[in-house]
């Protein structure tokens, strides 16, 4: 009996992880990537001899036995990467209204770090932490406890906004804002983003937090190596231009250079709207196409990549969220005068026990509309007005960090920038959105993108399916691959691997 052929469009985390699981289970896997570099948001790049992360700046729940650790072992990544822990007493540091607040790993330390600033709120802090654990733990996928009996996530946490639930859980408005200090990790919006999204992401990092030594592209390379060990292929510079279908199913994909890849199963790691553009199959109804095209995407980002002078800037093993506005909410809405309302500043890790930073990044929200006038231009050839736009915004971001860390700017040797256009072109995200399609409770079930399509052998994966971040994508991978292998079998394999 011949192997079933699985063609995967796109080599982001979703595409590669699906490729590993299916190749391990006997599928003939071919991953097609239109760029010369694999990885999607796992990509890194080098400038002037220094390496920078493009998207996956740090990871969570990677201590032995925790959720991501188990997934990385199953995907045969663990032995190929080295992790450097962030400060367990303050992996995230929030600067708000001139004061500093540290988020620690683990329940007791989490409460202990915040209690001096909020001595009246011990019960609320405990209630909040426990609610986060309850919601995240109730998801069999997020906790990788498929065979255990547990209550499902209560629907209210999927349909109620973060701020709504927080107002009933934590009495102090300032404490609520502090606990929202890391919301750029999932681009939350007030009255829109479901509390469950906050719970999944927060619990993920509350357990443990790490950086990948040498860059997250090592994760992508390790998964490529695993696919190839099982006989699969990962082919770059193969842009899929058409999904060929008969009247019942997808049968092949065509690429821009004329190659044709036949498929028994087709998985797309592209944005769903881009996937729909690749086929004119009547199996995908017009109403479905319109709905996916109309879904809102998360806000984009403007990044300043910093190369530091040698042995000048002490390495910072935490992430710094600074706010110029009195609340973390609403930073995606700004004027020319008020931008940036907030920023995320962090360093990249090149070695264990690092003493000085070689590079870092400052990231702030930026709407695609700000750069839409250059959307038909190409990277490196967008014109002097675009370069002036980037310089102006880079100087504003650097000044914002300098205000909070006096002397910071003296350590910068050189900087580089990216906008939502850059992110769109290099990672394939729609309109340069930071996390793909936005979770919006005001749209109800219509805001969700299912991994199944009406083309029965065309499946979807990636950050637009299920939830955001590395864990959210891998959860989506399990959901997608379960259609072919069964969830019980995948969970059995994960358990046996560990």
Automatic annotation (TrEMBL):
Pfam families listed in its UniProt record: Amino_oxidase (PF01593)
InterPro entries, sorted: Amino_oxidase, FAD/NAD-bd_sf, Retinol_saturase
Signal peptide: none
Record's keyword terms, sorted: FAD, Flavoprotein, NAD, NADP, Signal
Residues annotated as domain Amine oxidase: 13-432
Keyword Magnesium: no
Full protein name: NAD(P)/FAD-dependent oxidoreductase
Species assigned in the record: Prevotella illustrans
Higher taxonomy: Bacteria, Pseudomonadati, Bacteroidota, Bacteroidia, Bacteroidales
């Amino acid at each position: 009996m011949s192997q079933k052929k699985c063609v995967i469009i796109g080599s982001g985390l979703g595409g590669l992880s699906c490729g590993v699981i299916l190749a391990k289970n006997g599928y003939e896997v071919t991953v097609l990537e239109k760029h010369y570099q694999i990885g999607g948001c796992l990509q890194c790049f080098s400038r002037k001899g220094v390496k920078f992360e493009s998207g996956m700046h740090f990871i969570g729940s990677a201590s032995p036995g925790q959720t991501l650790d188990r997934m990385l072992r199953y995907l045969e990544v663990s032995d190929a990467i080295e992790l450097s822990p962030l400060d367990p007493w303050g992996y995230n540091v929030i600067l708000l209204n001139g004061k500093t607040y540290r988020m620690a790993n683990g329940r007791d330390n989490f409460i202990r770090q915040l209690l001096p600033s909020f001595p009246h709120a011990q019960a609320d802090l405990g209630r909040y932490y426990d609610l986060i654990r309850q919601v995240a733990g109730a998801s069999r996928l997020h906790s990788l406890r498929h065979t255990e009996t547990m209550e499902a996530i209560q629907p209210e946490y999927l349909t109620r906004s973060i701020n709504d639930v927080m107002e009933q859980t934590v009495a102090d408005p300032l404490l609520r804002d502090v606990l929202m200090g890391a919301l750029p990790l999932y681009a939350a919006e007030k009255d829109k983003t479901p509390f469950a999204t906050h719970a999944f992401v927060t619990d993920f990092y509350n357990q443990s937090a790490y950086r990948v030594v040498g860059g997250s592209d090592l994760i992508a390379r390790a998964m490529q190596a695993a696919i190839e060990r099982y006989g699969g292929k990962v082919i770059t510079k193969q842009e899929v231009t058409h999904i060929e279908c008969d009247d019942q199913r997808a049968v092949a994909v065509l690429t821009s250079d004329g190659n044709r890849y036949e498929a028994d199963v087709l998985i797309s790691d592209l944005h769903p709207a881009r996937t729909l553009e690749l086929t004119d199959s009547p199996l995908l109804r017009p109403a479905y196409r319109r709905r996916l095209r109309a879904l809102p995407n998360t806000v984009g980002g403007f990044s300043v990549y910093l190369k530091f002078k040698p042995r000048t800037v002490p390495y910072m093993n935490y992430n710094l969220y600074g706010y110029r506005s009195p609340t973390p909410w609403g930073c995606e809405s700004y004027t020319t005068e008020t931008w940036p309302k907030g920023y995320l500043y962090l360093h990249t890790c090149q070695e264990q026990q690092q003493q000085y930073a070689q590079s870092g990044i400052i990231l702030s929200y930026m709407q695609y509309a700000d750069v839409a006038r250059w959307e038909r231009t190409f990277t490196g050839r967008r014109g002097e007005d675009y370069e002036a736009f980037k310089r102006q915004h880079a100087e504003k971001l650097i000044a914002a960090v300098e205000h909070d860390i006096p002397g910071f700017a003296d350590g910068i040797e050189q900087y580089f920038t990216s906008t939502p256009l850059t992110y769109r072109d290099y990672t394939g995200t729609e309109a340069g959105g930071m996390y793909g399609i936005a979770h919006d409770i005001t749209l109800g079930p219509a805001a969700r993108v299912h991994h199944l399509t009406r083309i029965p052998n065309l499946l979807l994966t990636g950050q637009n399916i299920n939830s955001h971040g590395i864990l959210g994508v891998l959860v989506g991978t399990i959901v997608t691959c379960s259609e072919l292998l069964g969830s019980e079998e995948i969970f059995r394999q994960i358990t046996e691997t560990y």
